[in-house]
């Protein structure tokens, strides 16, 4: 049976402060890799792995002035997401993003009049507990 986390019960903290108005958190882990080719063949014989980085985005209704400050000051922060399952269970998964930096910011207002800011960030590592 799959594990289904509830967005309504989960929370995200930036340097220990709850992120109000969070709409989504998206991240991906990217690992550099290079193929080692076999001489005289079109097949690889091995793979070399390199730098691993974490790239993500936070979409927040309106704006988050703390993240705006971190972007302006190019300051490092920690992001912690506590993912909880649906009601009736105490299952919890914690994602800790270490040594994060806000890399960019995009703002939009939709036809319904809601404003949202997307903050792009990178992290040195992610730890899952």
Describe the protein.
The chain has 129 residues and is mainly β. The chain has a single domain, classed as Hcp1-like (Pnp Oxidase, Chain A, Roll). It has one helix and eight strands; from the N terminus they run ββββαββββ. Strands 1, 2, 3, 4, 5, 6, 7 and 8 form an eight-stranded antiparallel β-sheet that branches.
Could you give a short account of the major beta sheet?
8 strands, antiparallel
Helix content: under 10%
- Give the overall form: globular
CATH fold name: Pnp Oxidase, Chain A
Radius of gyration: 19 Å
CATH superfamily: Hcp1-like
Mean pLDDT: 92
- Poorly predicted ranges (pLDDT <50, ≥5 residues)? none
Distance between the termini: 20 Å
Count, helices: 1
> Structural class of the secondary elements?
mainly beta
How many structural domains? 1
CATH class: Mainly Beta
From the 3D coordinates, which CATH architecture would you assign? Roll
Number of strands: 8
Order of helices and strands: EEEEHEEEE
Tell me the fraction of residues in β-strands, as a range: over 45%
